[in-house]
Amino acid sequence: MKATPTILVIPTGIGCDIGGFAGDALPTAKLLASASGCLVTHPNVMNGGTLSEKNERIFYVEGYSLDRFARAEIGLKKVNQQKIGIIFDKNIENEMLLRHLQVSDACIATLGIDISSYVITDEPVGIVINNELSGLSSGYVKNPETLIKAGKSLINQGITAIAIVTRFPDDIDVGNINLYREGKGIDVIAGVEAVISHLISKYLKVPCAHAPALAPIDLKANLDPRAAAEEIGHTFLPSVLIGLNTAPDLIDLPDLNNKITLYPHEIQSIVVPSGALGGEAVLACMERDLNIIAVKNKGVLNVSSKWFDYNKLYKVDNYLEAAGLLIAIREGINYKSIKRPLKSIKNRT
Length: 349
What we know:
Blueprint: E1 6-8, H1 26-36, E2 39-41, H2 43-46, E3 58-60, H3 63-70, E4 74-77, E5 84-88, H4 94-111, E6 115-120, E7 127-129, E8 139-141, H5 144-156, E9 161-167, H6 174-181, H7 190-204, E10 208-213, H8 237-245, E11 249-252, E12 269-273, H9 280-287, E13 291-295, E14 313-316, H10 319-331
Parallel strand pairs: 1-2, 1-12, 2-3, 5-6, 5-9, 9-10, 12-13, 13-14
Antiparallel strand pairs: 4-11, 7-8
């Protein structure tokens, strides 16, 4: 089957109905990968706490690096396996650290993942969550330098991909957490997670993803199924390790050694929530005259098509329709031929 390489973006921390929870966009990614034959997407789509899945047609690329790919700054090289190192926040307590190390051992023993080393930061990372004003999940880290230093030490040991585990504060707003668990709110920690992974991507240029270290929470009866994947284990690290295991290498362009599996110029479309059209990857794809497939996927952002005059913007009601559109593009079928009513050509001038 021929492929029409496609990017799927569902931004982190904006409370989308699909993709705003614990890996609940993974079935969507699998569907779009099947429809297009080749999909590039990011950890927010693929990570489901303790659950995830390997898919040969999906490139797992951290968000900052995905933006660079959309801007045609890097290409992607498939690998059989990455050599993963883990950065642990100095703030993580011994018992919690042991839980994460046991997860790592389990992924080595059961899944055959190569987790070669770990390092503890010299200083606490210092997570600050701040989403009261914007309504979006946001925040910052107090000591970014300690993360970069730890990552460099892993790379010096021959590590090729990095998982980051930082200790999140215990005083996160319980009301917001419960709303999220009930499927009514945003993931309040997701924004800071993106800051952390973007930091490592920007300065170390290796595949990476983040898992939060959180204190256990009480069992909840009225749990939304989309949040359930985060409730069934002691850590969120397994999905990160599964994703990084075969995450592609990031190759700066131009590539003089012809190592690249997927070039940016091969991408034909990007699929994105209809209210999130202002992201860097979307704007870069518009500059490159690619198809923008805007899907109704309710979130707290509202940067919609009314702000854009773009002739390759396709509006669809759901990801099933997006998959059909990708198949039409792949097979060279004019999607207007399938829609009704079908206008006469004499009425199109």
